[in-house]
Amino acid sequence: NLTNCENAGICLQRGKEFSSFGSIDTQQFSYDGQRLRLTYFNGDDCPSGVKGKHSSEIFFVCDSNAGLGTPVLHKRYTCLAVFMWKTSLVCQNTQQQCSFEISNKHYDFNLLSSLSHNWNAVDAQNVSYWINICRGVQRTNTTIGCSPTAAVCMENQAGSHISLGTIQTMEVKSINSTDLLLTFKSGDSRACSKISSSTEMTPTSRIFMRCGNRLGKPKMSNGPDNECYYNFLWESSLACADKAEQVILEENGILRDARFGFILDIKSILNQKFSTN
């Protein structure tokens, strides 16, 4: 009955039956540098769920035209409901961040992402590579031919500038306790022209970030291989993880996360009820 949802953050209604998908007392906000997530735990019983209970997640997605927006059910699992919520409330703080939360560890690469300069590496054949991991290669006298969407841009011996992967395709994952892998796909097919293949290939740049003692700079390791991977190694103190922390929701509806300089006002959607199918 309805009493099952009196303290619920998410409530499922089926006819006259109501089920809690998480208690309001368990709400947790987290931010990975790109997305704001709200989770609820300790709902009604569900044997295969977290601690045998139903739970739910809401991902807030920036949409400058959505206003407050409303949640939409994205996926429904046996004991977990996942919602996407397009809203303009999160747009002001999700632009041009270069920080990530991976496996409950925090990484801040903002110092490696610049609006004024790019990072440079040169291989044994004197081919130059320009890197700007979150903002894209910036236009300078030496990179004037690079696409602004390129995270990695190669200047070959003929002086042509070729994208080796775009910022829009960026993926970050942990390899082990000291290394991260940054991947950029969908570069310019000209970078794969020397590889024998029955289909057109596009390059992928892989930057192996290793925990080091200094800010460091990228080094070209090898590439392209038979799959058109270009591999770089970057030893940097910024690849050493900080422990991740939860975002704090203050009483006035302000979310704060000092790691990202994150301040967000969500009081306009608190203490309201929203429904979705």
Automatic annotation (TrEMBL):
GO terms for cellular component: endosome membrane; Golgi membrane; trans-Golgi network. Its main location: membrane. It comes from the Eukaryota. It holds the Pfam family CIMR. InterPro entries: CIMR_rpt, Man6P_isomerase_rcpt-bd_dom_sf, MRH_dom. The keyword RNA-binding does not apply. The keyword Lipid biosynthesis does not apply. Residues 1-93, 96-242 form the MRH domain. This is Cation-independent mannose-6-phosphate receptor. One of its GO terms (molecular function) is D-mannose binding. It comes from Parasteatoda tepidariorum. GO terms for biological process: lysosomal transport. SMART domains: CIMR. It is found in: Endomembrane system. Keywords: Disulfide bond, Membrane, Receptor, Signal, Transmembrane, Transmembrane helix, Transport.
